[in-house]
Specification:
It contains ten helices and twelve strands. By secondary structure, the protein is α/β, with parallel strands linked by helices. The chain has two domains: about 200 residues, Alpha-Beta Complex (DHBP synthase); about 80 residues, Rossmann fold, CATH 3.40.50. Strand 11, helix 9 and strand 12 form a beta-alpha-beta unit. Helix 1 crosses helix 5. The model has no long low-confidence stretch (mean pLDDT about 95).
Length: about 300
């Protein structure tokens, strides 16, 4: 049984000793460190190869802990937390005094969420404080949605808590509440429409260069090691023939007619990892529908393909 008391206790002991642990959330597996320990946070950046200016997401057991980390928790933040936590929503707020620069990437904001996965919740409850946890993979690469994916990325001495396949499979929705209006900084499983319905107002999209830095917002991200090219819907077969005529060995990922975004997103990263191991020169991925329910999947594929342009 994953997440036994013995395993949780071992993970808590490592965190309190300043070491790292990997654990499942409903979105992807995270690489966790004590959010109050700057030296431990620096180990996260070093292990991932992540730029020090890229903030980490703080994971809490309960919204009741927010006041220890955020300078102010607005009524809007309280409303979204009450509606969507525990769950795949990250809120960006002004950070409280004493929060480590290593957690925020040197910014005056903090990104925070309360995960829903039972193993993550057990770990956070036992630890009793915040855990900083970006995705448990090398920077810029495909996020892990299984414990085996984490072990493929890192050495055997990293403790990985088992939690099965991640239910969502894509990173959390990120909303900034630090300006005059709420801004959608990254699409995810919680849709823009659901957020706007709760807020009773439109979510704004940030002007380039004005929003707080948040995970997964760079143009090139979420990429397999094999070059990935997006192909227009219905043009995959022709693209394969052109590639083979050039002597390329390609593998493909199609979007089946009638496919739903939730199932596709849940399986996406595992499928990209599988295709990455085929020894091909290129992965050809058929573009997904333009409808709003596909926003998160389309965002991840666009950033993965941008890496190889």
């Amino acid at each position: 049984m994953p997440g036994t008391t013995k395993e949780i206790d071992a993970a808590v002991a490592r965190l309190r000793a300043g070491e790292l642990v990997a654990f499942p959330t409903e979105t992807v597996y995270g690489l966790g460190a004590d959010a109050r320990n700057p030296a431990a946070l620096r180990k996260v950046y070093a292990l991932k190869g992540r730029p020090a200016t890229h903030p980490l997401i703080l994971h809490l057991h309960s919204a009741d802990q927010l006041s220890s980390w955020a300078a102010q928790v607005s009524p809007t933040a309280q409303r979204l937390a009450a509606r969507f936590w525990p769950g795949p929503l990250t809120l960006v707020l002004r950070r409280a005094a004493g929060v480590a620069d290593e957690l925020t990437g040197g910014q005056d904001t903090i990104a925070v969420r309360v995960p829903a996965h039972p193993v993550a919740r057990s770990l956070l409850a036992a630890f009793g404080s915040g855990i900083a946890a970006p995705s448990a993979n090398r920077y810029g690469r495909v996020s892990p949605t299984r414990a085996a994916h984490v072990r493929e990325e890192f050495a055997d001495d990293l403790l990985v808590l088992e939690g099965g396949d991640c239910e969502v499979g894509l990173e959390s929705t990120i909303v900034s509440l630090v300006g005059e209006t709420a801004q959608l900084l990254r699409p995810g499983a919680i849709s823009r429409a659901a957020l706007e319905a709760e807020l009773g107002m439109p979510l704004q999209l940030p002007v380039v260069g004005t929003a707080p830095r948040v995970p997964g917002s760079v143009a090139q991200h979420y990429a397999p090691q094999t070059p990935l090219t997006l192909v227009p819907a219905g043009a995959l077969e022709a693209a394969v023939k052109r590639a083979e005529a050039r002597g390329e060995l390609v593998v493909t990922l199609a979007c089946a007619p009638g496919a739903d975004a939730v199932s596709y997103g849940r399986a996406l990263y595992a499928e990209l990892r599988r295709l990455d191991k085929q020894g091909a020169s290129r992965i050809l991925v058929e573009s997904v529908p333009e409808s709003a329910d596909w926003d998160a999947v389309r965002d991840r594929l666009t950033r993965a393909a941008a890496t190889f342009r």
